[in-house]
Design brief:
CATH topology of the domain at 30-183: NADH Oxidase
Shape: globular
Bound molecules: flavin mononucleotide
Distance between the termini: 52 Å
Largest sheet: 4 strands, antiparallel
Number of helices: 11
Mean pLDDT: 96
Order of helices and strands: HHEHHEHHEHEHHHH
Number of strands: 4
Strand content: 5-15%
Strand order of the largest sheet: 1-2-4-3
Structural class: alpha+beta
CATH superfamily of the domain at 30-183: NADH Oxidase
CATH architecture of the domain at 30-183: 3-Layer(aba) Sandwich
């Protein structure tokens, strides 16, 4: 039964459900988890997680995202293509996509000609996709699950987009796995707040601040018996010859194919 909108209480009409300490404790308990108990998710939990996705704020009311729920052979294949086996092992796995296709269908449905704004479409659709996906992860964590965002889908974006039959205007952002944790994961560090929160104007970090922050982040790159070197980890992604450069060509080709490539000026 659908509840009439007028009787759904707003936040202002409901007392806070948690204190600041409880909110901090919830976020402090966040861990990305890659090993899961082999259990199916009850339908009510899945429904609640998808409800949370759809309650996310959205640009221009347009809901510029699509969630592809993965099952069976397609799920196995996405796990293989992305190089992330936990996509196959989780209770639920999704590919979270930026979607500027559906909005164009609505515009055409309204008798207008869809405009040409691939760069803006992509910008706002990626935002919507992330907001919906992170709402899913937060709802899952509230229900006791843990999960993992997987940018590894960008290791084979063309093949994965073809496999998922993504129409023009749709771009995979990342996969999201959800399940009950089967690992004991320490909390991973974050950069000092002064590096990521600016007041009014962007403040450039000093070399000393960068060095001190890198020390703080080192444990995130530690492996059993090996001290971590976070900057080395970043270099594997972002330095010349790193994986981001390798992703560039396939992503550009996919953007062209999906009609999301900005015009050359
Ligand atoms: C957009 C995005 C892409 C990610 N891609 C991967 C991935 O491909 N494989 C993986 O195992 N973890 C992936 N992660 C998880 C990060 O490694 C993890 O969030 C980070 O190490 C911080 O750990 P924490 O979430 O436990 O604090 C990704 C996270 C995000 C937000």
């Amino acid at each position: 039964m659908t509840v009439p909108v007028s009787v759904i209480p707003t936040r202002a009409q409901t007392p806070p459900t948690q204190s600041p300490d409880e909110v901090r404790a919830f976020f402090a308990a966040h861990r990305t988890v890659r090993r899961y108990q082999p259990s199916a998710m009850p339908a009510e939990h899945l429904d609640t997680i998808l409800y949370a996705a759809q309650r996310a704020p959205t640009d221009a009311t347009a809901q510029l995202y699509s969630l592809i729920r993965l099952t069976g052979e397609i799920r196995e294949r996405v796990a293989e293509l992305s190089g992330n086996a936990h996509i196959a092992a989780a209770s639920e796995s999704f590919v979270i996509c930026a979607d500027a296709y559906r909005v164009r269908q609505f515009v055409a449905h309204g008798g207008a000609e869809p405009g040409h704004s691939p760069t803006s479409d992509l910008h706002f659709a990626l935002g919507d996709a992330v907001l919906a996906g992170q709402n899913m992860l937060l709802a899952a964590e509230m229900l006791g699950y843990q999960g993992c965002w997987i940018g590894g889908v960008m290791n084979a974006p063309g093949d994965i987009s073809e496999l998922l039959a993504l129409p023009p205007g749709v771009l995979p952002f990342a996969a999201l796995t959800i399940g009950l944790s089967a690992e004991d994961t320490p909390q991973r560090p974050r950069l000092p707040r002064e590096l990521v929160v600016h007041e009014n104007r962007y403040r450039l970090p000093s070399p000393e601040e960068l060095a001190a922050a890198a020390e703080i982040m080192n444990p995130i790159a530690a492996r059993p018996g090996q001290p971590g070197n976070w900057v080395r980890l970043l270099c594997a992604y972002f330095a010349v010859g790193g994986s981001m450069e390798k992703r560039e060509g396939p992503l550009r080709r996919l953007l062209r194919r999906q009609q999301l490539e900005g015009d050359r000026q």
